[in-house]
Amino acid sequence: DAGVIQSPRHEVTEMGQEVTLRCKPISGHDYLFWYRQTMMRGLELLIYFNNNVPIDDSGMPEDRFSAKMPNASFSTLKIQPSEPRDSAVYFCASSSRSNQPQHFGDGTRLSIL
Amino acid sequence: GENVEQHPSTLSVQEGDSAVIKCTYSDSASNYFPWYKQELGKGPQLIIDIRSNVGEKKDQRIAVTLNKTAKHFSLHITETQPEDSAVYFCAASQGNQFYFGTGTSLTVIP
User: Fold this and answer.
1) For B44-93, how does the pLDDT look when each residue is reduced to its tens digit (9 = 90+)?
2) In sequence order, which ranges of A6-111 are alpha helices (DSSP H)?
3) Is A41 touching B (CB cutoff 8 A)?
4) Which residue in A has a C-alpha nearest to residue B94's C-alpha?
5) Gap between the Cα atoms of A98 and A104, Å rounded
6) Is B68 in contact with B2 (CB distance < 8 Å)?
7) What is the pLDDT of residues A33-92, one digit of tens each?
């Protein structure tokens, strides 16, 4: 079975632009998580969904960040407008049930100039 | 909320030696403890996990131990090989959310 698929793998854009990150979870997984990884703060949970419904978005840093999951096989994380401090690696992960292993994609390395 | 501390932050060992990484957690309700390995440019990959009803689990050269009373758990890698070089993360969970440690960068010197 294919793992979690993220796109793009790399994104370089200028400050103020809109950025959209995409994720396809493992088929049959009911939970989807968005994380941000930086040297300073490590792995931070931004938001997670259960059956396409956002459950906890308390980790979303600002209103500039938004996430959607229109169906079981696709999710987006959007930053508008983007700022240099948003530069990080963003990971998507999915799991089959609560308290089960989370399977990570290979991430999107985002650089905001 | 849960707080997970991980030590050491960096670890260098000679090929063939053992490596041990330790984590502590704060919330006694946590009952699931996965370990992840992250290679450069890749996402974290699960290597082993343990639940609170088990004290130890082993998978070939990798083992994890859990002390619920002391609220700490450890990863043991025996007969280390150069391909074990990576960043390792521990995590604690009691439901949907994983709380990750800050990572240990392991270098295995050939």
Assistant:
1) 999 999 998 889 999 999 999 999 999 999 999 999 999 999 999 999 99
2) none
3) no
4) A99
5) 15
6) no
7) 999 999 988 999 999 999 999 999 999 988 999 999 999 999 999 999 999 999 999 999
